């Protein structure tokens, strides 16, 4: 009787270097596709509103006017400081370029009310039809 002698198979080897390469590619992919939270350059304390509209993607982004607690005007996303006369000129230019131009106002809740009214008047004089105001959701801290 002839017995078959089985040869022992070597244990499968795991190549760690290849796994590390795959892990690095996944980490790079995760970093590239992650969106980062943008911190605003101007700190404003927005008033609360329970009826605030949710912001969404607009094909026509609004012209943004910021009013800080001291009553200073800043325009655009970069927050360039302007006077009321310069603001009126910028609003007229924006309305002449785009008749459907929208104005969005971000005013600190401690901003002087007279400054807010002057922005509304400047928007009316420039014939901007839509005026929006940024608020924070009252339900969120």
Name a few traits of the molecule.
five-stranded mixed β-sheet; Nucleotidyltransferase, domain 5; 3 helices; alpha/beta; two-stranded parallel sheet; 32% helix; 141 residues
What is the structure about, briefly put?
This protein is α/β, with parallel strands linked by helices and 141 residues long. 32% of the residues lie in helices and 18% in strands. It is built from 3 helices and 7 strands, in the order αββββαβαββ.
Radius of gyration: 29 Å
Mean pLDDT: 80
Number of discrete helical segments:
3
What is the strand arrangement across the widest sheet? 4-3-2-5-6
Secondary-structure element series: HEEEEHEHEE
Specify the helix fraction band: 25-40%
How widely separated are the two ends? 84 Å
Note the main sheet. 5 strands, mixed
In one word, what is the shape? rod-shaped
The CATH class of the domain at 48-137: Alpha Beta
- Strand portion, in percent? 15-25%
Give the number of DSSP strands.
7
CATH architecture of the domain at 48-137: 2-Layer Sandwich
Give the helix/strand class: alpha/beta
**If you consult CATH, what is the topology of the domain at 48-137?**
Nucleotidyltransferase, domain 5
Q: Which regions have little confidence, pLDDT < 50, spanning 5+ residues?
A: none
Please, could you describe this protein's structure?
- Helices cover 32% and strands 18% of the residues.
- The protein is an alpha/beta fold and 141 residues long.
- It has a domain of 90 residues: Nucleotidyltransferase, domain 5 (2-Layer Sandwich).
- The strands form two sheets. It has a five-stranded mixed β-sheet, with helices on one face.
- A hairpin with a 5-residue loop joins strand 2 and strand 3.
- Helix 2 packs parallel to helix 3.
- The longest helix is centred in the first third of the chain and has 18 residues.
- The protein is rod-shaped and about 110 Å long.
- It starts with 15 loop residues before the first helix and ends with a strand.
